[in-house]
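Render this sequence as a predicted structure.
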Amino acid sequence: RIVELASEGRGPAVVIAASRGGIVSMPKLWECGWQGPSVVGNGGFVNASAIPAFVRCVLVTAGWDCFSTRNPETTAKVLKKEDPENPVLLYHDPQEDHDL
């Protein structure tokens, strides 16, 4: 429904998802055609899905998380992007946990 609303000019300004939503829902929205700004807490999708070429993405990760993204160097290495020139903003809080 988000993609339908966006195509009518009535979509959200940004989609924010974290934890399971970041692993499953955000990549599914991208698959369905969402190209708007995306904020993903925990960055759980980085091992499985690529960020589409036209998506502006912000990752918010935490040092005490159970996800592999708790290490920003690992996150940068495994992050997949359809367009290698597409910037991704990574905000990492080394003192935060999964509930960021």
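Summary. The chain has a mean pLDDT of 93. Helices lie at 2-7, 20-31, 72-78.
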